[in-house]
Structure formats: structure tokens, C-alpha cells
Design a protein that fits this description.
Largest sheet: none
Keywords: Membrane, Transmembrane, Transmembrane helix, Transport
Structural class: mainly alpha
Distance between the termini: 27 Å
Protein name: Conserved hypothetical membrane protein
Helix content: over 70%
InterPro entries: AA/rel_permease1 (IPR002293)
Subcellular location: Membrane
CATH superfamily: Amino acid/polyamine transporter I
GO cellular component, one term: membrane
CATH architecture: Up-down Bundle
Number of strands: 0
């Protein structure tokens, strides 16, 4: 068994060398660990729960039945398309490398930066979600008043803890991610079982889950329903983590591809079951939609005080694990991009800790950028306290648009390369869609364009303004410097075999 593993590791290293990169990161993740990191970042106990009030406010109970399923079916298509590319081009740069190889170095550069914007939003959104749930629970236990300021402080502390764990090493984080996957499933079982046991005589009829036409917002239902899709769409983000950790995964052409796809599929199934029973437990939808935290309100009403608090704490800890995994993914993407000198001071962020074999400086840059985004929103709301959007809606909208645009670019470039005969069947990896590849890619792109527009219409226009400002900064950076000086990942293909061996020897000897 050990001999087979060593043989596979040798093959994986040679495969990576063909793309011009040395095996610097520790390759120790199995198939379940690769799946677990994406499953943990998707985290139905984070996205679906933290934005439960958003979905209920705009789409009513039908958002949990129709909205969740509609988004999930399209995301499964996108995940399949991305799995195909991960199998064909197994490097930690993932989206960025796919775009650069299928298009050009400038396509790759923009893809990386747009993905980076989305990653900042998703890390900030996840850890802020944790703080939104944990701060009121802690305030109740310790007798202080939960405010936006105390939530921001807890958010900062959470980021520091996640940074420390990720700095220590991939083995620890991988084990925690494995535990997180089972923990998520276990908490869903406990939550659903509790609701069935305590509320079985008070559950709404099943058709309540698919009831459309009810909104508690001031918008027409059709528009309100589309705005409410942010709940499900943000939940189904971050599954590119399986690709970003591809250089740490054994047999990645198969395992990372399945990690992407199955993380979405299982999240859809378990998420639907959870949302169904939580929604059927609602006693007063109007009161729940007006509550400061709709999910906490529904669970407290259904399960009572003490036991309800225990269940809420279990859900909140799931969010903590989700944030831990998201920083792992983001830091690997940042490391891979910096390795190709696509960032200011790239040599710093591409540096690998010789003790822990992790991109330590990239990890702490992730922490700083994520806190800065939430701090920016905090300052804006302090200046203009009458804003109608929530901090979480702002962070999640930024992450959805940034990530899905980055997902869509390599899919578009793959279709273009195929039409020109530059990407052929021989370039596919062992995981591919065959004759279904093109229609699935096209449907994926249509949904990405549609949902990116829907995520920045009022009341989320502030997220749109922030994204436009970020894109303008990217354009200035590109024209001022990177257009002439960024060589792209193809430059790494010029590394000699001796260069690659020298890089790998540095880590073996340290």
C-alpha cells in the first residue's frame, strides 16, 4: 500500500513538473480531504443559515423549495464544467491557469484578480456570518449588548485564529476539514431530528415549502424572488477549493475533479433536507422575516430556549470550520498567483514556510484583506447609518459576482479554444463530460451572466459600486505595469528540469 502511494506521488510530481512547477507544497491530501475542503466551504450551515432571513424576506417559504433547487441545478452544471478543467490542468492556480492556458496571460491575470476579489468576499462573509451568530449567543451568556462593533471585534479575533491554524500546517487543517465534513452532516441530522421530534404536530403542510407569491419586501414578487436567490447562490460558492489544493492532493486529476462535483451534489441534498424542515417549522413567517436573525427566531420558537441555544451553537461552530477551510483555499490561490509574479511584492506571498510547508505570508495577507473589506463596510455604515442593505448582503454579493465571473472566464475560453481546434479530446483528463461538455458549458455561462447581474441590483447596488471600483483599479494596474511586465504562468514552462529539482531539493533539505 505504501509503495503504491509513493508511486502515485512520484507520478503526481512528474505531472506537475510538466506544467513547469516544482512540488513545493506537501502532497498529503486524499480524496475525502479534497472533497471535505470544498464541502466545508460551501457549508450549508453557513450560507443557507446566515442568509435564511434574506431568502425568507424576499421569496417567502417558496424560496427554500424552488429557489434552492433552481440554483443548485445550475451550479451542478458549473461544477461539472470546472471538474473537467481541473482534471485537464491540475495546478494550484486553477481558474487562473486554466484561463491563461486556454486564452492568454492577460486573460489569466484578470481571472486571478477577479477570483481574488471574490475570495476576499467569501472569507469575510463566512467569518462575519460566524460572528453574527456567535456574538448574540456570547452576549446572552456574558451579559453584554451585541452591536456591530462587538461583531466586528469578534470577526477580527476569528480571522486571527483561522490564520494561526492555517499557518501551523496542512496536516492539521486537512484533519479538521475531514472532521468538518462529518460534523456538518451530523449537525444537519441533529437539527432535522430535533425539529421532527419537537415540532411534528406543528409542522406546516409540505406544499408550504413550494408556496410562491409571498414576499415581505416592498418589491413585486418576481423581482423579490430573484433578489432572494442570493441565499442559495452564495451558499454554493467556494467549491473551487478542491482545485486550489490540487498540488496537495494525491492523484488530483481524478480526486480533485470528483471533489468539486460531489461537494456541490451532497450540499444540495443535505441543504434541501435541512431547509425543508426548518421552513416547515415556521409558526409566523412575517414575524420571522422581521426578526433580527430569522434563523435564530425560527429555531428558538420551534425548540425552545435552552435546547434551541445548544442547536444554534452547533450550527455556529460549523461556520467556524467553514471559515477555516476558506482561508486554506484563498491562500493557495494567492500563493499560486504570486509564484507567477502577478501580485505586488509577489516574492513575499509566494514564500513557503520551510518548517510548516505552508504559504505563511499569503495566509496572513488573506486575513488582512478580508478584515479590510468588512472594516470598509463598517466605516461606510458609520458615516451613513440609514443604509438599507446589511453588511452580510454586501460581503456575500461581492463574493458571488467575483467568484462566478472568475468561474465563467475559463469556461468561455475553453469553448473558444475548442471552436478554434486548440483544445481537443486529447487534452481532457480522465474526468470529462464527453459529448455533453459543450452544452453544459454553455448553460453554465448563461446562468453565470444572469446571476451576476441579479446580485448587484437594488438593494445590493453598493456591492455593484464596490465591484466597479475594484475593476477600475485592476484596469489601471494592468495598463500601468502588468501589461508589459507580467509573463503569465506560461513563463514557468521555461523552467529547466534542473531548476525544478533544485527547488524541490531546497524543501527536502530544510
Amino acid at each position: 500500500m505504501q509503495q503504491e502511494k509513493e508511486q502515485q506521488l512520484l507520478e503526481d510530481r512528474r505531472d506537475l513538473n510538466k506544467f513547469g512547477y516544482a512540488q513545493e507544497l506537501l502532497r498529503d491530501m486524499g480524496g475525502f480531504s479534497n472533497f471535505a475542503i470544498s464541502f466545508s466551504i460551501i457549508s450549508i450551515l453557513t450560507g443557507a443559515v446566515s442568509l435564511y432571513g434574506h431568502g425568507l424576506l424576499y421569496g417567502g417559504s417558496g424560496m427554500m423549495g424552488f429557489g434552492w433547487t433552481l440554483v443548485a441545478l445550475f451550479v451542478i452544471l458549473i461544477a461539472a464544467s470546472m471538474s473537467e478543467l481541473a482534471s485537464a490542468i491540475p495546478t494550484a492556480g486553477a481558474l487562473y491557469h486554466w484561463a491563461a492556458i486556454l486564452g492568454s496571460k492577460r486573460w489569466g491575470w484578470y481571472t486571478a484578480w477577479i477570483n481574488l476579489i471574490g475570495q476576499i468576499g467569501i472569507v469575510a462573509g463566512i467569518d462575519y456570518s460566524f460572528s453574527l451568530f456567535a456574538d448574540p449567543l456570547l452576549a446572552s451568556a456574558f451579559g453584554y449588548t451585541s452591536t456591530e462593533t462587538t461583531t466586528l471585534i469578534l470577526f477580527g479575533i476569528t480571522l486571527l485564529l483561522h490564520g494561526t491554524f492555517n499557518h501551523i500546517g496542512i496536516r492539521l487543517v486537512a484533519r479538521l476539514n475531514d472532521f468538518s465534513a462529518w460534523y456538518h452532516i451530523g449537525v444537519v441530522v441533529i437539527l432535522v431530528g430535533s425539529l421532527v421530534f419537537f415540532s411534528r404536530n406543528d409542522l406546516q403542510p409540505l406544499d408550504y415549502l413550494f408556496q410562491v407569491g409571498q414576499t415581505f419586501s416592498d418589491k413585486p414578487y418576481a423581482i423579490a424572488f430573484l433578489i432572494g436567490l442570493l441565499q442559495a447562490q452564495w451558499t454554493f460558492t467556494g467549491y473551487d477549493a478542491s482545485a486550489h489544493t490540487i498540488e496537495e492532493t494525491i492523484n488530483p486529476r481524478v480526486r480533485a475533479a470528483w471533489g468539486i462535483y460531489t461537494s456541490v451534489a451532497f450540499s444540495f441534498i443535505f441543504g434541501f433536507i435541512m431547509l425543508a424542515f426548518v421552513t416547515l417549522s415556521i409558526k409566523n413567517a412575517a414575524a420571522a422575516s422581521e426578526a433580527e436573525n430569522a434563523f435564530i427566531y425560527v429555531i428558538s420558537e420551534a425548540l425552545g430556549g435552552t435546547f434551541g441555544s445548544v442547536v444554534l451553537w452547533l450550527v455556529t461552530f460549523a461556520m467556524w470550520f467553514c471559515g477555516l477551510a476558506s482561508i486554506t483555499s484563498f491562500s493557495r490561490m494567492l500563493y499560486a498567483f504570486s509564484r507567477d509574479k502577478g501580485m505586488p511584492w509577489s516574492h513575499q506571498w509566494a514564500e513557503i514556510s520551510t518548517k510548516y510547508r505552508t504559504p505563511a505570508k499569503a495566509i496572513w495577507l488573506v486575513i488582512i484583506l478580508s478584515f479590510a473589506l468588512a472594516l470598509f463596510d463598517y466605516i461606510v455604515k458609520s458615516i451613513n447609518p440609514n443604509t438599507s442593505y446589511t453588511t452580510l448582503a454586501f460581503l456575500t454579493a461581492v463574493s458571488v459576482v467575483g467568484l462566478y465571473v472568475a468561474y465563467g472566464i475559463p469556461l468561455y475560453l475553453k469553448l473558444r479554444a475548442e471552436s478554434r481546434g486548440l483544445f481537443q479530446r486529447k487534452h481532457y483528463g480522465p474526468w470529462h463530460l464527453g459529448n455533453w461538455s459543450k452544452p453544459i458549458n454553455v448553460l453554465s455561462l448563461i446562468w453565470i451572466v444572469f446571476i451576476s447581474i441579479m446580485m448587484v441590483i437594488p438593494p445590493n447596488q453598493t456591492a455593484g459600486y464596490a465591484l466597479i471600483a475594484m475593476f477600475l483599479v485592476l484596469l489601471i494596474m494592468d495598463l500601468a505595469y502588468y501589461r508589459k511586465h507580467f509573463r503569465g504562468p506560461q513563463a514557468a514552462l521555461g523552467n529547466s528540469e534542473e531548476d525544478i529539482k533544485r527547488q524541490e531539493a531546497k524543501f527536502r533539505d530544510s
